Amino acid sequence: MAITDANPDSFTRMDESTEQQWQVIGERTRANQGRVADRLLMLLESLADISDGFITDQLTHCLQTATMAEKAGADPEMVFASLMHDVGKAISVPNHGAISAEMIKPYVRDDVYRTILNHQDFQGRHYYQHFGAPTDLRDQFRDESWFALCEQFTDDWDQQAFDPQAETFPLEHFEPLIREITAQARF
Predict the structure, then answer these.
(1) For residue 127, how far is the Cα from the chain centroid?
(2) For residue 41, what is the domain's CATH number?
(3) Relative to the CA of 87, which of 11, 27, 46, 96 has its CA 20 to 30 Å away?
(4) How many Cβ atoms are within 10 Å of 53's Cβ, its own excluded?
């Protein structure tokens, strides 16, 4: 049976699947990889409806963060991550960092993933005192190889990206980068 003749519609259980069915599923998944960028763009656009008390909406915040990263000379994966760092807020604010990090994990190197995963603990330095929480949570990561990257991200770009007058590249500027980085997942 040719790979294209394998019937994935007969697939009802993983433990009874065939190699040919998985080859078809793999081919179709690769052919539809572009939908990842489409979905990420959709989630980013939805952030325009979320401000939660900030002077800028969360889309503008993400765009400003990515703009600052790009202008500072960050590499493409870090610019992409800067854009995507708060996309998890479209689903849940309290664990948005973990949601965002898991969404980008297949497309970025480990230090970038860990930066987004842990950025909230780094951000605490700038405002946790207002909630009676410790501001030194980043210190637990001081010996990690990604510490400096996360510190740069949070201190130089993320925490400063709430100015409605700041230079902000539009989402269309970043769309080619999103499409390029998400074109192929790393497993």
Answers:
(1) 22
(2) 1.10.3210.10
(3) 27
(4) 4
